[in-house]
Amino acid sequence: MSDGDGISIYGSHNIWIDHISLSRCYDGLIDVIQASTAITISNCHLTNHNDVMLLGGNDGYSDDKVMQVTVAFNHFGQGLVQRMPRVRWGFVHVVNNDYTHWLMYAIGGSKQPTILSQGNRFIAPLNIACKEVTKREYSPESEWKSWNWRSENDLMMNGAFFVESGSPIRIVNRHEVIKAKPGTYASRLTRFSGVLHCIQHKPC
């Protein structure tokens, strides 16, 4: 049963979305909500959409604190506006993605999510008012300054900048997260993003 999203993950865990191409859905391209966790979204090519990726659907649903999502090796391409992703409550590792287009912002959130951005390439739009990668939704600085949003080895281009807040994020078990390459590698790591054009009985 769809509510207009390209892909909806609802109250689920241990889900891997890999090598898809999505654009022009009725609502969002990918939504992860209702305390879903252990989700990986990787090697996807996303284009031509406004609300791209929503992780946590409601400011009042604090059960989403359990959410852990990895967003890795994706190409955020032409015609995208915002929410790459937009996060509530949980922890998101944004690693080695290539952000070549956005019209408003790339990564946003509310309700004190933890966001670790590592080894991504961010190419800002020409609009001088939209150079900032990040956006805190409906929260004054006095509130969001304690949220842990960190950028490590990201490549910022065309005036892009990431506003950090909170404290450095300590990963207890490094084997449980993807080891990031520097942002200079992002275009190479995402060059095969999207649908694989495979031939039956032959390796892709």
Strand content: 35-45%
Number of helices: 2
Task: Assign a percent range to the helix content.
Answer: under 10%
Strand order of the largest sheet: 1-4-8-12-15-18
Please write the string of helix (H) and strand (E) elements. Answer: EEEEEEEEEEEEEEEEEEHEEH
Alpha-carbon distance between the two ends: 32 Å
Output the structural class. mainly beta
Radius of gyration: 16 Å
Q: Mean pLDDT across all residues, rounded?
A: 95
Instruction: Give a quick account of the main beta sheet: strands, pairing sense, barrel closure.
Output: 6 strands, parallel
Poorly predicted residue ranges: none
Q: How many runs of DSSP E, i.e. beta strands?
A: 20
Q: What shape does the CA trace take?
A: globular
Structure description:
This protein is mainly beta and about 200 residues long. Helix content is about 5%, strand content about 35%. The protein is built from 2 helices and 20 strands. The chain has helices spanning about 140-145, 185-190; strands spanning about 5-10, 15-20, 20-25, 30-35, 35-40, 45, 50, 55, 70, 75, 80, 85-90, 90-95, 100, 105-110, 115-120, 120-125, 135, 150, 155. The strands form 4 sheets. The protein has a 6-stranded parallel sheet, with no helix packed on it. The longest helix has 4 residues, at about 140-145. It is globular, with a radius of gyration of 16 Å. It starts with 6 loop residues before the first strand and ends in a 15-residue tail after the last helix. About 45% of the residues are buried. The model has no long low-confidence stretch (mean pLDDT about 95).
